[in-house]
Specification:
single chain; flat; 1 helix; alpha+beta
Length: 117
């Protein structure tokens, strides 16, 4: 019984510390105090497209999806950071972050970093 408890607790802790972090933070100063300025949906496409981009009708679970790009302003250093979010049926600023990049430099020295490919 105690061995099972130790294994479960170790598994939960391992998952917590190794899970991917998709946090919204400033790319200039790494502050979490940022405000959404604007966002827009990217071009829509099918999850399983044909070569010409049309819907593959052989797939029953084929749906339209799009990425989402959002711009945030840091409340501490006045930098602007842009985020690219994962493709989704209902894109928005709360989806997983794929990329983070600085759009406008902030005040002071840079402590943050870009994220993604």
């Amino acid at each position: 019984m105690s061995t099972l408890l130790v294994v479960v607790v170790a598994g939960v802790l391992l998952w917590f510390f190794l899970k991917p972090r998709h946090e919204k933070k400033c790319a200039w100063c790494s502050s979490y105090k940022i405000s959404l300025l604007n966002g827009h949906e990217g071009p829509r496409g099918w999850k399983y497209p044909n070569k010409d981009g049309s819907k593959d009708k052989r797939r029953k679970d084929n749906y339209e999806e799009a990425t989402y790009n959002s711009e945030y302003k840091c409340n501490e250093c006045n930098a602007s950071t842009i985020f690219e979010h994962a493709k989704s049926k209902s894109p928005g600023p709360n989806k997983n972050i794929l990329k983070r990049a600085i759009l406008k430099d902030g005040d002071g020295e840079r402590n943050g970093s870009d994220f993604g490919v």
